[in-house]
Design goal:
Blueprint: H1 6-12, H2 16-24, H3 28-47, H4 50-83, H5 93-100, H6 104-125, H7 128-139, H8 148-180, H9 185-190, H10 204-224, H11 233-256, H12 260-266
């Protein structure tokens, strides 16, 4: 029975050029030992199933790609915060409305359990699919090469990032024109954005954000072969949070803009409605 050790799999994806670079810095005795170990490792790799090595390399490259996608998303949110000139004590306008609708004691309880605890747990839970994907391939050592689930997840994540970026930019440009007094007559009459992506969905950025994390779940599906599992609890919680947040946002908008009721009747809430 072949015993799989982590260092064998690590050397499988370690470039030969990097090995030679490290070897040149070692004393002669260590260099000979490293040479013998490399020869033995190559002999063991000949005995490993090819699919298992491909699966390990696949999850490494796929994981790096997903890390880059999440990094791009986080960087974009940071840029939005700087463009809005948010301070350390700044907050979303909805927090003030929510705070005024509660008693001080109730808001402190809500702040402790939801803002300080539940939100951080939710942020951890939405990354569970990546942990499952890594564990299945690199710890459980199942042969999982790149497959259709991976391709679907990558395409979905990239597409959702683009949709969310465009929607946020459209909304930012609208509010810039609104504060500068440069709105068109139709925009000034409504008071809110109803053009661009917002002509197909009332909250295209919310929709794209949820779909992005659903796409991340497909990476776990790629490694386990199951459409869904316990790792989807984070995404389910995120969708539930967005449901409540969207209801609250629309309640504020309905009370603020008289034309919002007609906008709600003609445009879908989340899923874009495209008429041909």
């Amino acid at each position: 029975m072949l015993v799989h050790r982590p260092r064998v799999l690590c050397l499988a994806v370690w470039p030969r050029r990097a090995q030679l670079r490290v070897a040149r810095r070692l004393p002669p005795c260590r260099r000979r030992r490293m040479h013998h170990h490399r020869v033995g490792t190559e002999a063991k790799l000949q005995l490993l199933p090819q699919g298992r090595l491909q699966g390990t390399q696949s999850i490494i490259w796929t994981g790096l790609f997903v890390w880059c996608l999440c990094g791009v998303r986080s960087s974009r949110l940071i840029m939005i915060a700087f463009s809005l000139h948010l301070q350390w004590d700044g907050e979303d306008y909805r927090w003030e409305v929510l705070r005024n609708s509660m008693s001080p004691a109730l808001y402190h309880v809500f702040h402790f359990f939801f803002i300080a605890i539940a939100q951080n747990l939710l942020l951890t839970a939405i990354t569970l699919p990546l942990a499952v994907s890594w564990h299945t391939t690199c710890v459980a050592k199942k042969a999982v090469p790149f497959n259709g689930y991976d391709a679907l997840a990558i395409i979905a994540c990239i597409f959702c990032l683009l949709i969310e970026a465009v929607a946020d930019q459209e909304q930012f440009d609208f509010h810039q024109r609104k504060h500068a007094g440069r709105l068109h007559a139709s925009e000034k009459k409504l008071g809110f954005l109803a053009d661009g992506l917002f002509a197909f969905s009332r909250h295209p950025n919310f929709f794209a954000e949820q779909c992005f994390w659903v796409g991340v779940c497909f990476f776990a599906s790629a490694s386990t072969g199951q459409w869904a599992g316990w790792w989807c609890v984070g995404v389910a919680g995120l969708i539930a949070l967005f449901h409540g947040s969207t209801n609250f946002t629309e309640e504020i908008s309905s009370g603020k803009y008289p034309g919002y009721a007609g906008y709600k009747k003609s445009v879908n809430r989340l899923v874009p409605r495209i008429e041909f």
